[in-house]
Amino acid sequence: MRAEREQRFSQLFRAQMSAVRGYTRTLVVETDVDDIVSATFRTAWQRLDDIPPLSVRPWLFGVARNHVLNHVRAERRRKALVDVLGTIQPPSHAELHHGQIDPARIGTLRSALDQLSDSEREIIQLAAWHELMSAEIATVLDIRPNAARVRLHRARQHLSDLVDAAEAKAVQDA
């Protein structure tokens, strides 16, 4: 069965390749012809049983035309994206750590996290590291969403207090 299918496709390819290539050349620039022709014959392979025996060439031209239209749309989107990216202005100030924690503060934060209770650390990790919302945290911890919000707020406040205290101590010691 597979050998028969391959033979049918091979005959179709040999008989129609130059016609599809010629038609495609009338629609796109030379550098895109091979991509469109190969996409057309890939579709022909996938839908070999759907090709009408008396309209093989028109069917293939229709497939090629559809691939050309998709290609043109993709190129238009790419060009629009390039144009938009060309208009983007960099920020007037550079953000030193790109929204991440200052590496100099990581030790302080790690120390503060170690001082939290296990339940406080868990809820902070669920929110900050796993990016869960309060309702999702409530599901994980099997508590009510409001209780999750309150616990998260308290844990964050405790963490913030510990970081502030550690940083104040570091300033005093310096």
Number of helical segments with 4 or more residues: 7
Summed up, the domain count is 2
**Beta-strand fraction estimate:** under 5%
CATH T-level topology of the largest domain: Rna Polymerase Sigma Factor, Chain: A
Describe the sheet with the most strands. none
- Poorly predicted regions are none
Number of strands: 0
CATH class of the largest domain: Mainly Alpha
Q: What is the radius of gyration computed over CA atoms, rounded to a whole number of angstroms? A: 31 Å
**Cα shape:** elongated
Average the pLDDT over all residues and give the rounded result: 87
Task: Fill in the keyword field for this structure.
174 residues; mainly alpha; Rna Polymerase Sigma Factor, Chain: A; Arc Repressor Mutant, subunit A; 2 domains
